[in-house]
From TrEMBL:
The keyword Oxidoreductase does not apply. This is NSUN7 methyltransferase. One of its GO terms (molecular function) is methyltransferase activity. The keyword Methyltransferase applies. The gene is Nsun7. GO terms for biological process: methylation. InterPro entries: NSUN7. Keywords: Methyltransferase, Transferase. It comes from Polioptila caerulea. Transmembrane segments: none annotated.
Length: 245
């Protein structure tokens, strides 16, 4: 768990891409048949997915839904760069192509790191190498899209309704369960206060370095949304003593 941040910065294990592609295949937006340009193959059968653990499941769904948010943009980049259609990649792998393209642009088109203990998947390796060979043309296509739509970043391509939902969600307080099998409430509070956090009575008293004990569940701690990333890097979280709700 202590290498999670490193994995995310350098890409994902092959199994994450495969599962994200299967999820995306079932949730992507079907275009009008007369206007279909990018084809995703048949998705009539429910895919079988084997997640290594809960963290892998979460990463797979996050990647799939990130690709869904930017489906129109990703398809336009593929077409504009001439990376699609690719006759060596069948329609059944188009979902994999899209989710891996999202991740490639999120890494600023840098090469993905392969981890020592990673189990490689032939389809992921093939699509990854193919996209990386087109990285210059894909980056240029993304730049043209940004100029065309006067967008400072790809976040500007998110539909307004989704953008508003994300803004509301990002402002909500963050809740962590205390894993009482590993640490007591008192020890967790002591650890947090040693790191400079201050206890307040309720969320209405929050500033940045504060937290509160939930009024109804005394093994739940509530933090300002601005602390989320900082909390995810604490040993308390890495050691599963605090569990993100």
């Amino acid at each position: 768990k202590r290498t999670v941040t490193q994995i995310e910065k350098n890409g994902y294990p092959d199994s994450i891409y495969i599962n994200a592609a299967k999820i995306f295949q079932g949730i992507h937006i079907e275009k009008n048949k007369d206007g279909i340009v990018v084809r995703y193959g048949d998705n009539s059968e429910s895919p079988m997915m084997a997640f290594k653990d809960e963290h892998s499941r979460r990463l797979s769904y996050e990647l799939a839904f990130s690709a869904l948010k930017y489906q129109d943009l990703l398809e336009e980049i593929l077409l504009d760069s001439k990376a699609y259609p690719c006759y060596s990649i069948p329609d059944e792998l188009t979902s994999l192509l899209v989710v891996m393209l999202y991740d490639l642009q999120d890494r600023k088109f840098k090469k993905r790191k392969i981890f020592d203990e990673e189990e490689l998947v032939a389809e992921v390796q093939e699509v990854g190498h193919y996209l990386y060979s087109y990285r210059t043309k894909l980056a240029a296509a993304l730049a043209r899209c940004r100029i065309k739509y006067d967008a400072l970043s790809i976040e500007y391509f998110v539909p307004e309704t989704i953008w508003k939902q994300e803004q509301r969600a990002s402002a909500l307080p963050v809740c962590f369960w205390i894993n009482t099998f590993k640490i007591s409430l008192e020890d967790a509070i002591r650890d947090l206060e040693m790191k400079g956090l201050r206890k307040v009575e309720s969320v209405s008293d929050f500033d940045h370095n504060t937290y509160a004990v939930d009024q109804h569940c005394h093994d739940v701690l509530v933090f300002p949304s601005s602390l989320r990333e900082e909390l995810l890097h604490l040993d308390l979280f890495a050691d599963c003593k605090l569990l993100l709700q």
